[in-house]
Specification:
CATH superfamily of the largest domain: Cysteine proteinases
Number of domains: 2
Strand order of the largest sheet: 1-6-2-3-4-5
CATH architecture of the largest domain: Alpha-Beta Complex
CATH class of the largest domain: Alpha Beta
Number of helices: 10
Order of helices and strands: HHHHHHEHEEEEEHHH
Radius of gyration: 21 Å
């Protein structure tokens, strides 16, 4: 087995299939039309061993195009470095996922791969201003991830929600279409579109835009979920048109006090 950069394994604290609310976004389960251009994970001098990053960002780029109609290329070099990819060994899927959720994403134009790079050039230190700019992504987008089962029924189901990051021996790739006969995937080596008979791990990223404000109906729904009641007129007026994040930051204490209050 040739290792192209995957360290297998998951943590007990990781989300598993069903934790993220399931949504049938793409009923066909076919993401071919939204795939990004093919991109090598190596130069003539050096293999980045960053397949865990390349396949993750391929998933998010495909989802971004599906949701917005616009292709956006993210910097694999940035996320490979920020997630502590180990040259000649690679990375875990979950460490890359954590970096995306914490560090954000940077556009390829802001931190491109140098021409014919070697290890020192590709994994050079990232300037502080680039790190700050990457966090701007998190103001507009939420990224969640979970592990899903690798049987055909599970793959076909979850592909209707998003393209799947999957692992074959020694390599992380993007599963963009599956039916009862085939598993088709998008690679970071040419030819970029290939097929396989089975996979060992499956990981689902879900990209969602962050809504800036809440409608009155959404305020009512969140009050029922958080406090088991409808908001009064003043609460409804106050929170309608406000960001959900602001509500979560200020109302969490109210919920804790509510749950800990004595029964009368």
């Amino acid at each position: 087995m040739i290792n192209h950069g995957i360290i297998e394994g998951k943590r007990a604290i990781d989300w598993v299939g069903g934790t993220i609310p399931y949504e049938e976004r793409n009923p066909s389960g076919d993401w071919t039309a939204y795939l990004p251009p093919g991109e090598w994970q190596r130069s003539n001098l050096f293999d980045t061993f960053a397949c865990a990053t390349f396949s993750a960002l391929n998933s998010l780029e495909a989802q971004h195009k599906f949701l917005t109609g616009q292709y956006r290329e993210f910097s694999d070099r940035f996320t490979a470095k920020m997630s502590d990819t180990i040259p000649a060994l690679g990375n875990t899927l979950w460490r890359v996922g954590d970096s995306i959720r914490i560090d954000g994403l940077l556009d390829e134009a802001d931190w491109p791969a140098p021409p014919n790079y070697d290890e020192a050039a590709y994994y050079s230190p990232i300037p502080a201003e680039k790190k700050l700019k990457a966090k701007e992504f998190l103001k507009d987008w939420n990224v969640a991830y979970e592990w899903v089962d690798t049987d055909k029924i599970s793959l076909i189901k979850h592909l209707k929600h998003s393209p799947l990051q999957v692992v074959i021996p020694g390599h992380a790739i993007l599963n963009f279409y599956t039916n009862e006969q085939i598993i088709r995937y998008f690679d970071s080596y040419e030819p970029f579109i290939k097929e396989t008979e089975n996979i060992t791990w499956a990981f689902k990223y879900v990209l969602s835009p962050i809504k800036k404000t809440m409608t009155s109906e959404e305020v009512k729904k969140i009050y029922r979920l958080a406090f088991y009641r409808d908001p009064d007129a003043g609460e409804l007026t106050h929170w309608s048109g406000k960001p959900l994040l602001e509500f979560l930051n200020t109302a969490i204490t109210d919920r804790a006090n509510f749950l800990n209050s004595p029964i009368t």
